[in-house]
Every structure is written in structure tokens, then in C-alpha cells.
Amino acid sequence: MKPSIVLYKKLPADLHQRLEQHFSIVEFEGITEENRTKVFNALQQAEGLIGSGGAVNKELLDHAPRLRGVSTISVGYDNFDVDELTRRDIPLMHTPTVLTETVADTVMALVLSTARRVVNVAERVKAGEWNSNIGADWFGVDVHHKTIGIIGMGRIGLAVAQRAHFGFNMPVLYNARSQHKAAEERFGAKKCELDELLAKSDFVCVLLPLTEQTFHTIGKEQLAKMKSSAILISAGRGPVIDEKALIAALKEGTIHAAGMDVFETEPLPKDSPLLSLPNVVALPHIGSATHETRYGMAACAVDNLIAALTGEIKENCVNPQVLKK
Ligand SMILES: NC(=O)C1=CN([C@@H]2O[C@H](COP(=O)(O)OP(=O)(O)OC[C@H]3O[C@@H](n4cnc5c(N)ncnc54)[C@H](O)[C@@H]3O)[C@@H](O)[C@H]2O)C=CC1
Ligand SMILES: O=C(O)C(=O)CO
Q: DSSP characters for 191-226?
């Protein structure tokens, strides 16, 4: 008999078939308040779990006594209780690398669209406001040769640094816990303290994962240290930025603008003040959302689960210490 797995995200047909060759699949559309009991029931027999979104915590794991492998269709894993998985010797697999370049493209889209006011200006054209030669009220600010500060110099940070350096001649600053030789040698990046990065950068680009340490890394105090002409780009996880403090800073002119792909609450509530600020570009968490990359992530996650349940993990394991036991 094939091992049973719970799948909680729709997959392309060929990938679904690949999973079916190995496993008997019980499928759900997400893990929600509504289907929670059904998911918990299915988990009683499940040896594998694959999907994205929703909390995979102790309560859920308590309903999954036979679980041997978990695969998320994402690189971020802040919604998983990794300690609890590790305590139970369950490998957690994720999808790094396959989405790096696509997310870096999204970050540059936010840099360009905030600086050049692409969304705002295009809306004005559609509204019929382009009636004569444009004046200064349509102008943006330059991107090329401006300083970009990257907080979270990992895979995506490095890909952003590459674009900024080679594409836009931007000096690159970064703040990190350790030195990144590749970024320094290839892109002339300079490591600096957070305060210095905030004070010197024209674009502050936050690409940190969400952890206990990174929660509200950027708050009122940090925003006050930025240039009033600076633009904040947030594409890691929403709670890394104190959104209330950011809204105040944008309203008061403490900083110039913000480009955001992630928010403290997603989907962004319809009454969020961010939606009525003209100096905000808000995207619906589309960092990796291209057809090619989302397919690549799903394929990677499927292969990851197969590897985890056949004992053949070679890469992409978040808690590799469970493999040594
Ligand atoms: N907007 C979107 O759609 C997407 C968002 N993401 C987010 O981006 C994050 C980063 O992805 P990758 O670059 O692939 O991960 P990564 O693990 O390669 O990079 C994260 C970097 O942050 C650094 N870091 C972690 N904690 C830190 C701290 N307390 N202080 C300073 N630096 C710290 C790490 O050392 C690492 O260099 C993901 O965890 C995910 O949350 C990822 C993909 C898509
Ligand atoms: O992979 C992730 O962590 C995302 O946020 C979506 O691609």
C-alpha cells in the first residue's frame, strides 16, 4: 500500500500525478478554520504533508502521529514550528534557490515603481489627466547611482545586489550577522551597522526572514534614522516592519515612500491606511508569483517530499539535524 499524504495546495496535473505514483493523496484547499477537523482526521494516517500557508504547529502535529516528512511550497518557513518538528524527528523541506531570481526581480520592480511613481502616474493617465506636457507633479526620483541598503543579505539579497550593481550602478550597503565575501567581491557591497545603513541608503531593502529576532526590526526609531528622501522596500515578511510606525512615517514625511510585497496581515485589510497613501506601492505578496517559478517551486516541493519519505534527502532540508539521528 502506498503511504498516505495530505496535500493542501492545488498542484499542476503532472506534478499531482508524480505524487500519486508514490503516495495515496488526501487533498484539501488550504488548512482553514472551516476544514480544520477534516484535515486533522486525514492527518491521523498521513506520513507526509505538503502545501503552503497556514500554521503547522504543535496542535496540528499532535493529530499526525505517523508523520515522517513535511514539504512547504515556499522558501520561508515562519509558519512552521521547526523545534516541534525537530523534536519529533520530522524533516521540514523548503524551496530555496528556485525562486531567488524572480523575487529579486519583484524587489527591483518595487524600487523602480516607487521611485518613478509608475503606478500613481499610470493611474493618472488612465483617469484622463494627461492633457498637456507633464510638469513636476509627474516627476519621480532617480534610481541609478543611488545607494541601496540591503538588510538580509541571503540568496535574494545577493540577487538584488547583483541587479543594483550591474544594472543600475548603485553602491550597495548591507547589514548582516556575518561578512558576505561574494557580495563584497562581486558587487562591491560594504557591510555596515544597521544605523549607518539606514542613514546612508536611498533605498532600504528589507529581505529578512521572520524570526523572534527579526520581528519589528524596522520601527519608529529606525525609520527616524532614514533620510527623508529614502524609500523603504519590504519583501521578506510583513511583521519584520512595524506597520503602524511605517504608516505614521509615511504620513509625516519621515521617509519618502514605501514599496511593499508583504504585510503584517495578509491579505491586506481593506481599511489599511496603506491603501490610501499615494506614496505606497502595495503588491499582493507576488514575490515569486510567475508561472515558471511557481511551477518550479511546486516541482521542487514534490521532489522534496518524495526524498523525505524515501530517506534520500540531499538538499533543501530546514532541520538537517534530524537526518543524522
Ligand atoms: N515576497 C515574497 O514573495 C517572498 C519572500 N521571501 C522571504 O524572503 C526571505 C529570505 O529568503 P532567502 O534570501 O532565500 O533566505 P536566506 O536564508 O538565503 O536569507 C536570509 C538572510 O537573512 C539573514 N538573517 C536572518 N536573521 C537575521 C538577523 N537577525 N539579522 C541579520 N540578518 C539575518 C540570514 O543570515 C540570511 O543571510 C524568506 O525567509 C522569506 O520570508 C522569500 C520568497 C518570496
Ligand atoms: O517562498 C516564500 O517564502 C514566499 O513568500 C512565496 O514565494
A: E--HHHHHHH-SEEEE-PPP-TTTTTSB-HHHHHHS
Cα dihedral 216→222→228→233 (10° resolution)? -40
Residues 48, 72: contact at Cβ < 8 Å?
no
Q: Do domains 4-97+291-322 and 100-282 have the same CATH topology?
A: yes
pLDDT at 324: 78
Over residues 262-305, the pLDDT tens digits come to 999 999 999 999 999 999 999 999 999 999 999 999 999 999 99
Q: Are 288 and 105 in contact (CB under 8 A)?
A: no
H/E stretch holding 179: none
What pTM does this model have? 0.98
Residue nearest to atom 2 of ligand 2 (CA): 74
Q: What is the pLDDT of residues 225-263, one digit of tens each?
A: 999 999 999 999 999 999 999 999 999 999 999 999 999
The Cα–Cα gap between 138 and 251 comes to 20
Residue 54, ligand 1, Cβ within 6 A: no
State the helix-helix crossing angle for 155-162 and 100-115, rounded to 10 degrees: 50
- Whole-complex ipTM: 0.99
Domain range list for the chain: 4-97+291-322, 100-282
Query: 100-282: what fold?
Result: Rossmann fold (3.40.50)
Q: Would you say the CB of residue 99 lies under 6 angstroms from ligand 2?
A: yes
What is the longest distance spanned by two Cα atoms in the chain? 72
State the fold for domain 4-97+291-322: Rossmann fold (3.40.50)
